[in-house]
Amino acid sequence: MAVRVLVTAAVVLSLGLLAWVAMLRLAIMRRTVRDWVLFWAQLALTVGCFVLLQEEDQDSWQINVGAAVVLAMAAAVVWHYLATDIKHHRAAAVPGARPPHGAPAYGYPPVDPATAVTLPGPNPNPYTQQPQPPNPYATTPPASAPTPPPSPRIDQVRAELDELSDLLRKEGEK
To answer: Tens digit of pLDDT for each residue in 69-96?
Structure first.
């Protein structure tokens, strides 16, 4: 809503010279060929009006035509922008509605409406907790991994270390 107000205010307050901003927003938002063609046509018309407004004589027909076209274009762009933007956002707010351009949402594969499966009942909550796959980088070994039996060499080293610590205790007491 705030962006809609800002874009409309920019067009009105600039007396139509920034009307291309509204058309660019529509073209980027909806990504249809029609919107891009309208954007480029409107931008070319604005540049043409700038050329007409550069006349030195203040009462020339070029300035009058340029100013009239810019003001008429501003009114047309504001009307088109508001109607299209409101329609676009209402369609997006309806559950299950697809964008008018038919492009899939970011991160989702395209869905063929002919083969789409609809489930009866309420829509499932997409934010429910899903089971997480196991982490392959976890530091704890799996519970099913067998532990190898201790080797006799380890028992021998332990016994020698025990003897050595006993010897060191006896020498430390002396």
So the answer is: 888 888 888 888 888 888 877 776 666 5
d(CA 27, CA 101): 11
Banded pLDDT at 123 (limits 50, 70, 90): low
Question: What's the whole-model pTM score?
Answer: 0.46
- d(CA 19, CA 11) in angstroms, rounded, equals 5
DSSP class of residue 1?
-
Q: How far is CA 50 from each of CA 70, 74, 88, rounded to the nearest angstrom?
A: 9, 14, 31
Domain spans in the chain, listed from the N-terminal domain onward: 2-93
- DSSP output for 117-169: ---SSSPPPTTSPPPPPPPTT-SSPPTTSPPPPPPHHHHHHHHHHHHHHHHHH
